[in-house]
Specification:
The structure is a single chain. The protein is built from five helices and three strands; from the N terminus they run αααβαβαβ. Strands 1-2-3 form a three-stranded parallel beta sheet, with helices on one face. Helix content is 47%, strand content 14%. It has one domain: Vaccinia Virus protein VP39 (Rossmann fold, 3-Layer(aba) Sandwich), CATH 3.40.50.150. The mean pLDDT is 88. By secondary structure, the chain is of the alpha/beta class.
Length: 107
Amino acid sequence: MAESFRDFEHRGWEDPAVCAQYDNCFARLTTQSISALLNTARVGGTDSVLDVATGPGYVAGAAASRAATVVGVDFSARQVGLARTRYPGITFQQGDAGDLPFDAGEL
């Protein structure tokens, strides 16, 4: 049976080398648009932000620096661990974007 794309993604994002390469190769590219994203969403100190597919937590960290209350979610336990290490004051948890572990309006 062929591996599903979801299984491929999960396997890849648990690989320490893949996670390290993302951080080393794509961090600069992905972080350059975060400010514009948060500005467009008008994220500030009275907001709650759910960062789905948070990866290493770059968006979550930037939102928290604006005094927003932030929760980051990613299916990769390894990425969640990296995000927790990088941004210890933010709540990060493992979860799937297709089945988020929150009730409507919870955040």
